[in-house]
Amino acid sequence: MGSESYQEAIEALTKLLIEKEELKTVAAAKVEQITAELKTGELAKGQSPKYMVFACSDSRVCPSHVLNFQPGDAFVVRNIANMVPPFDKAKYGGVGAAIEYAVLHLKVNHSFYNGLNHKGSLKWVALGYPPS
């Protein structure tokens, strides 16, 4: 929890839940719109994205928002520092499986990386974490 006390954390969580409750009707309308599109629109036919995007898990940067993607436009893989580890059947299966699915099944046309400079996660890796 860092320097935050237990009580401060509970107060912050309570405030967040109250704010989210106020957005409930807005969120419900958006979910209803997307659900309707998934049932009856182009998205009901399945996904056929043109792009595969590798993006950082950084909560401040949402690739769909930054790139103005709509549902169905991009197949997005998010992880620490938008890394694509070397192929290894025994390790790092998630990224490899996502690439295989996007290329072989979804037939994406383009892939690209979306991220920030001076990443804290890269500094973390450079320091030798996680320990081997």
From TrEMBL:
Listed under catalytic activity are: hydrogencarbonate + H(+) = CO2 + H2O
Segments traversing the membrane:
none
* Positions bound to Zn(2+): 56, 58
What Pfam families is this protein classified in? Pro_CA (PF00484)
Q: Which InterPro entries match?
A: Carbonic_anhydrase, Carbonic_anhydrase_CS, Carbonic_anhydrase_sf
Enzyme's top EC category: lyase
Cofactor entry: Zn(2+)
- Keywords annotated in UniProt: Lyase, Metal-binding, S-nitrosylation, Zinc
Keyword Glycosyltransferase attached: no
Q: GO annotations under biological process? A: carbon utilization
Superkingdom of the source species: Eukaryota
> What's noted on cofactor binding?
Binds 1 zinc ion per subunit.
Q: What is its EC number?
A: 4.2.1.1
Gene Ontology terms, MF aspect:
carbonate dehydratase activity; zinc ion binding
Question: Does the entry feature the keyword Membrane, yes or no?
Answer: no
Main function: Reversible hydration of carbon dioxide.
The family line of this record is: Belongs to the beta-class carbonic anhydrase family.
Name of the protein: Carbonic anhydrase
